[in-house]
């Protein structure tokens, strides 16, 4: 393992490797606050786009750690296939944004869609994203169909898993 890799922060965790703490609401949306620091700010004086993408991934993975059944995080890992991000506003150093994230619809085979929306303290939408993720089995590194029981803690009423679809 390289030194750079050994010191890299784990996605969805704080600097010591502990999953980021948030809350899950009745619709199984995960909420997590991010505070902008000077290191997050670009030459325009607000949070850089790369920081927003890192926060999208942190919120998504923290949701996985918070809601997954015991053992699932040891067996599976998800990887990003695609991010679509719309920037509608921004914040400066010392300000905060709250992420709300959820799995949208049912998984299809190994793939699932995840939405993340960031709002400021006044509730204004700042950034929204739709990302495509795929589930891998850690032991093999291969794609696996998302098992219904793995998806269930993330799906809202009306989208309960009956089994993953291929279409």
Task: Give the helix proportion (percent range).
Answer: 10-25%
Number of strands: 7
Task: Briefly note the structural class of the backbone.
Answer: alpha+beta
Domain count: the total is 1
Poorly predicted regions: 159-167
CATH topology: Thiol Ester Dehydrase, Chain A
Taking the sheet with the most strands, its summary is: 7 strands, antiparallel
CATH architecture: Roll
For the record, what CATH class applies?
A: Alpha Beta
Q: What overall form do the CA principal axes indicate?
A: globular
Name the CATH superfamily classification: Hotdog Thioesterase
> What's the average pLDDT?
89
Annotation field: number of helices: 4
- Oligomeric state of the chains present here: single chain
Distance between the termini: 39 Å
What Rg do the Cα atoms give? 16 Å
What fraction strand? 25-35%
The topology string of helices and strands comes to HEEHHEEEEEH
Explain the layout of strands and helices.
Layout: H1 3-7, E1 23-24, E2 30-35, H2 49-67, H3 72-75, E3 76-87, E4 96-108, E5 111-119, E6 125-137, E7 142-143, H4 148-151
Antiparallel strand pairs: 1-2, 2-4, 3-6, 4-5, 5-6, 6-7
Compact summary:
Helix content is 19%, strand content 34%. It has helices spanning 3-7, 49-67, 72-75, 148-151, and strands at residues 23-24, 30-35, 76-87, 96-108, 111-119, 125-137, 142-143.
What does this structure look like?
There is one protein chain. With 167 residues, the chain is of the alpha+beta class. It has one domain: Hotdog Thioesterase (Thiol Ester Dehydrase, Chain A). 19% of the residues lie in helices and 34% in strands. It has 4 helices and 7 strands, in the order αββααβββββα. Strands 1, 2, 3, 4, 5, 6 and 7 form a 7-stranded antiparallel beta sheet that branches. It is globular and about 45 Å long.
């Amino acid at each position: 393992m390289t030194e750079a890799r050994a010191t890299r922060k784990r996605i969805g965790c704080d600097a010591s490797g502990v999953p980021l703490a948030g809350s899950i609401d009745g619709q199984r949306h995960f909420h997590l606050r991010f505070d902008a620091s000077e290191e997050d700010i670009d030459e325009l004086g607000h949070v850089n786009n790369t920081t927003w993408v890192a926060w999208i991934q942190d919120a998504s993975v923290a949701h996985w750690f918070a809601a997954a059944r015991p053992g699932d995080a040891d067996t599976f890992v998800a990887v990003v296939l695609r991010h679509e991000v719309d920037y509608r506003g921004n914040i400066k150093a010392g300000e905060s944004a709250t992420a709300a994230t959820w799995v949208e619809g049912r998984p299809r085979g190994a793939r699932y869609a995840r939405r993340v929306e960031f709002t400021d303290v006044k509730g204004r939408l700042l950034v929204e994203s739709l990302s495509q993720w795929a589930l891998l089995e850690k032991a093999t590194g291969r794609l696996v169909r998302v098992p219904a029981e793995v998806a269930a803690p993330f799906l809202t009423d009306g989208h309960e898993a009956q089994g993953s679809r291929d279409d």
